[in-house]
Structures are given as C-alpha cells and as structure tokens.
Amino acid sequence: MASTSPTRAATVSRRRLFGWATAAGLGLPGLLAACTSSKSATSAGAAASGTGALPASANLASLPLPTVPPPLPRRAATRVQIDLETQERRARLADGVEYEFWTFNGTVPGPMLRVRAGDTVALKLKNASTNKMTHSIDLHAVTGPGGGAAIMQVPPGQEAAFEWKALNPGLYVYHCATPIIPMHVAQGMYGLILVEPPEGLPPVDREFYVMQGDFYTTGKNGEGGFQSFSIEKMLREDPEYVVFNGAAGALTGDNALKAQVGEKVRIFFGVGGPNLVSSFHVIGEIFDAVYPEGASEALHNVQTTLVPAGGAAIVEFKVEVPGTYLLVDHSLTRILKGAAGQLVVTGPDAPDIFRKVSGDSAGTGGH
Ligand SMILES: [Cu+2]
Known about the structure:
This protein has 4 helices and 20 strands. It has helices at residues 6-26, 28-35, 181-186, 231-236; strands at 79-94, 97-104, 113-116, 120-127, 138-139, 159-165, 170-175, 190-196, 206-215, 225-227, 241-244, 257-260, 264-273, 278-283, 287-291, 299-302, 304-307, 311-318, 323-329, 340-346. A hairpin with a 2-residue loop joins strand 1 and strand 2 (97-104). Helix 1 (6-26) packs antiparallel against helix 2. The longest helix has 21 residues, at 6-26. The structure holds copper (II) ion (CU). Residues 102, 133, 135, 176, 178, 184, 189 line the site of copper (II) ion.
C-alpha cells in the first residue's frame, strides 16, 4: 500500500463509493451485492488496481460471529462465573479491507452475556500475552466505580477479577475502558449483557444479537489492504465504515438472520459507537414492542428506535410475510458505509397482508 499515492487512492475510493451509490439506486439486489460479505478478499494491492474491483485472496476472513445464549432455565438468583479474554487480531472489515480489531473473546461484538437480576457475577478478565495493549472492562450493568474499569486494568499476559451484584434488570453495553477509551471501542471492544428480570423475558421463537459500530480507517471507504486506525477521523467523528457485527455484510447471505413465517423474533440491538447513535429500523417491518434503551417498560408499534452510543434496545416483532428484510440505521447514508443486515423470512405467502395487484416492477428497492 505504500506505493499507492494519496491522489490515486482518493480516485479509487470515489469510484468505489460511486459504485456503491449506483448499486443502491438500482435497488435492493444491487445494494446487497455491494454490502455482502465474500469472506475472501485481498489484504493488499486492491486500491492499486484502479478499477474498484477487489481481487480475491484466500486468507482474509471476517471474525467469527457471537451467538445468543439461551434464556436462563432458572428463576432463582445465584453466583455466576464469567471468563473473558481480550484478543487483538487482524480480520476483514469490508471486502478487501483488513483492520486490527481489539476484541473480547475474538468476536465483534464480544460475547453476549446473560445473567439474572440478583445474581452475583464473578468476572475474570484475561489479557492475552500476545497483545500489545492494556485492556479493561466497564459494564454498564455494574453498580460501582467505572463499572469495573477502575479496578480491572489488565496489562498483556495478566488477568484480574472482580465480583458485582446485578441490581437492575435491562440490556446493557459493556466495553473496554482503557485510555484512549474511544480508540479501544473503535477497534471493536464492546458487547451486550442482558440482566433478565426475575420472571425472565416473555418467550419468543428466535433471538438475535446485533451491535452497530463506527470504524475509522486511514484509507477512505473501499480503499483496500490493511487499514490502520485514524485518530484524526475519530476525533472528527467521521467514520469510513459503519457496520453491524464487526464487518460490512457480516449479517447477510449465509449469515443473515433467519426466521419462519408466523414466528416471533427478538433482536438485542446495541450500539458500541464510539461516536454515532443509531436510528435502528427493519425495512418492511414494524416493531410490535420496543424496550427503548433496554428499559423495563415496552413501547408498542414502533417504526424506528433511536439507540444511543453506549446504549441498547430490545425489539420484538412477529414475521407474517415471507421475504428478505433489511436491518438498517435509518441515517441511510450509512448503508453505503456497510450498515445493512438481512432478515430472511421463509414460509407461505400471506396475500391477505401483502400482495401485488398490478404493475411490472423491475426493482425491489426498500426506500
Ligand atoms: Cu482495550
């Protein structure tokens, strides 16, 4: 990449962005083609091709995706042991774009944690000896100094532990809180912890875990190869990428969320940031219930819910009509920066709810 001049890189980047914008104008299929993960792209030389097309490489994969732990089978409070390890690793941020992620347990977001209000949580944080940086954890579910970060700064090769009692039910963000804190967050160091209320959450058919984050690369959006972190862009709050679950297209194609007609789905949605808030929306669906900011009381019949940086929401809806639904931040320009996921619903048509009457639409644009 050192041989790519700034002018050359800028030209390629504009082409790349223009290509994405054109794809968006063509409607959903083109848009998804632009945003879908190939999981096989180059880590070098892409911008120098001058075409905007990114040559394939076999060894640039996205980080693995975290799963949703099942609802707790117990309703009594207890003592829970949670072990986390901070890991620094390079992986795919977008097609042809490699980035150094700093992670909890090797995923972005980090593992979703699930405890019950009243539980005493014993949390051990290990910092892998191969890491360069000190890391830590601040859980918004904690009542105590720094959410734990005041006593949990862990140098490479060491570990620390603390205990805390989960006093308040809700859905909370956790993140690294080692200076420069937003830099650690911008490398991917965040996740969600659900503190179930004593009675648990109402049962649903499917639960999903999605977190939005903004990423600040030295190169412009679409500029290939390894991209280092840009503190200048972070300070300007001007990200090159805004993505769900750590990479453009991470929740599309084979990794799309999947449900059957008639099922009730729940999405645990959080925003790691470090800077942007999210206007979370599922194109073609209405949230039957939203627990805004992870609160205990639900709102009903919501189109778009605003989720703060360092905040979360639980959204629930029944899927009645088969098709592909896009998860977006309805600050829609961010789709072009990677913020699009898919929910694929399969099952019988429901013409009483949704059907075509006439016309010859060639496109399937969502908005
Ligand atoms: Cu950190």
